[in-house]
Amino acid sequence: MASWLGTTDHKRVALLYMATLLGFFCIGGFAAAAIRLELFTPAADVMTPDAYNRMFTLHGTVMVWFFLVPSIPNTLGNFLLPLMIGARDLAFPRLNLFSWYLFVSAGLLLLLSLLLGGVDTGWTFYTPFSTMFSNGYVMLAALAVIVAGFSSIATGLNFIATVHMLRAPGMHWFRLPLLVWAIYGTSLVMVLATPVLSASLLLIVAERAFGLPVFDPAQGGDPLLFQHLFWFYSHPAVYIMILPAFGVISEIVTCFARRRVFGYRFMVYAILWIALVGFLVWGHHMFVSGQSLFASMAFSFLSFVIAVPSAIKVFNWTFTLYRGQITFEAPMFYALGFIGLFTIGGLTGLFLAAIPIDVHVTDTYFVVAHFHFIMVGGAVTALYGGLHFWWPKLTGRMYPESWARLAGLTMFFGFVFTFFPMFVMGFAGMPRRYQVYPPEFQAWNVMSSSGAVLLAAAYLLPIGYLTWSLFFGRRAGDDPWDATGLEWRTASPPPRENFFELPVVDEEPYLYHPEATGPHHSAREPHRNQGRNAR
């Protein structure tokens, strides 16, 4: 145990993050289950109003800051980034371990605020709720998010330095795998945006603890200032959650379509475009907050603009599949489910970019559904897909394929049954954050709560069979999917230094030969030569 808690091996740190995030995922999922149980009937017959407010605040805070933001970068990214660029470790191994300790400390602060009485402001900590009306434990929760932010900054700096300094010989920028590009773009957002969140939450602590008149209008403050600061970080944070998912899906689609990613350079430019323009659209969260009409029109236009690179990715995945020799292993089930769910989430995002529609559905379940289709249907589905794809590399074991396919299908349909009814309820006017609602919405809420049971089963099922595979799964080869990429050119699981001999890269990424018919049937002799070099 001591060797794990003091490790500087990026692979072990990634597994520490996985275990920690699994715990927070269970806590956030429990809160979601309590919310859906309460909404099964129109009356408040499970929790008091105060308890309900604390429960959805707990759900949002845990799932956003302590699961979705670090989910792919700190787990799969931590494990795979050095392997995919031919490095022996991250640039700063001790900083990597320190970032995990920061993250755990932040989680303990949050749990302490829960045990002391909880927070009822919502995960956004909006003023004046957080500065004037909530209990004092909101400062403890805000400090928890601040500490978690420093963990993200440390991780982002580490990833940026690693990509710049430790690439294998011959791996120039346009030979990087798309997952590496996605993690690199995400890291830039982490480093540039997270300090703004920390500053805004520190101002809440300063006003509550020291009486500084920052947001209180009676003392010359501006409550809307917090929204500007918060969303300047939090909209780019959406791309911290979803950009790594784009990279994961790109790796899976190209492998099981046996074709090079269509428009590789366009995919790279789309990642960087999203990371840049994501800083310019925060105001579309504030169409009804009192900002000027001119500002709202500008933010509306930019919100449509940022949809373009996301659409490019969907089209490129589709054309990668076109005429591909597709095989339907479990990771591909998750990838196809991601594309469907993300497309729905993206299209409904265009509704919210249009000012008249956004005004109509603001603070309704339409927004809840859109957010979850992107963040949960997108990021979590991609995380599960990536976990299944690289599980043989992480553990050296294979899992039962039939159970994995069943879980992938169940996750897709369970998610649709849970969240699609919310679009209908939201457009019809049901506000979010309310535990009591008109009876005419009960049928939709029953459907949503029933779908949540199916979705929970889909999330829990892989935990069971993946754990089983650690003890009873058959041994995986070094490259069970017959995939490209340096991570498949070393042992499964990789040795401490990743490669027995550092590889040299002399070809473009994703060069699948047309005669390759799927996993275990490749004729890619150049890759086999590269594999011997890597070993």
UniProtKB/TrEMBL annotation:
Q: Record keywords: Nucleotide-binding included?
A: no
Q: Which GO terms describe its molecular function?
A: cytochrome-c oxidase activity; heme binding
Listed under GO biological process in this entry are: aerobic respiration; electron transport coupled proton transport; respiratory electron transport chain
| Cellular component terms (Gene Ontology) | membrane
- Stretch list, region Disordered: 512-535
Keywords of this entry: Electron transport, Heme, Iron, Membrane, Metal-binding, Respiratory chain, Transmembrane, Transmembrane helix, Transport
Recorded family membership = Belongs to the heme-copper respiratory oxidase family.
Spell out the protein name for this chain. Cytochrome c oxidase subunit I
Per the UniProt record, the source organism is: Teichococcus wenyumeiae
Q: What is the lineage of its organism?
A: Bacteria, Pseudomonadati, Pseudomonadota, Alphaproteobacteria, Acetobacterales
